[in-house]
Amino acid sequence: MIYFIQGEQTKLVKIGKTRNVWNRIEQMQSLSPDLLNVVAVMNPAEAKTDAQREAELHRRFFSYNVHGEWFEGAPVIKYVKILIDSGEAYVPELCEGGTRPVHIPIKLHERIKVHAAEEGVTMGHAVEMVILDSRFGSPLKIGKLFA
């Protein structure tokens, strides 16, 4: 699977490959001072491997490379929107309706599902949530999270 992850402050986009995007972003987030968000993911065409598609994308954005697999955001995001519109990529959302894109680590999502079940919320029902952003100490309204 190919992923596009963007730093909220820097706006830089990392183009990489992984088997599990949520585990990967959790690893990266622990090393990053910037809040990271998954912009989109894609599965390469059957004739190509993840490594081949990742290399193609790195070559495509070579002139926008900042460091390693990190690229200037605007041109990459523009291309990602084309991929999404064409159905080649998609946005893996855990929540919707929030005031800004928010990544919820999978472990937190599992805890929310358990809490929702304890409160009698059945699968597929939306739960209004507000959590405390530990980095900034300010509340983040997640909006509707589907348990």
Give a quick precis of the structure.
With 147 residues, this protein is α+β, with helices and mostly antiparallel strands. The chain is built from four helices and nine strands; from the N terminus they run E-E-H-E-H-E-E-H-E-E-H-E-E.
Describe this structure in words.
The chain is of the alpha+beta class and 147 residues long. The protein folds into two domains: 2-90; 95-146, no CATH class. The protein has helices at residues 21-31, 50-60, 73-86, 106-118, and strands spanning 2-7, 13-17, 36-42, 65-67, 70-71, 89-90, 95-96, 126-133, 138-146. The protein has a six-stranded antiparallel beta sheet with strand order 4-5-2-1-3-6, sandwiched between helices. A three-stranded antiparallel beta sheet has the order 7-9-8, with no helix packed on it. A hairpin with a 5-residue loop joins strand 1 (2-7) and strand 2. The longest helix has 14 residues, at 73-86. It is globular, with a radius of gyration of 16 Å. It starts with a strand and ends with a strand. Mean pLDDT is 74; it is low at 94-107 and 123-147.
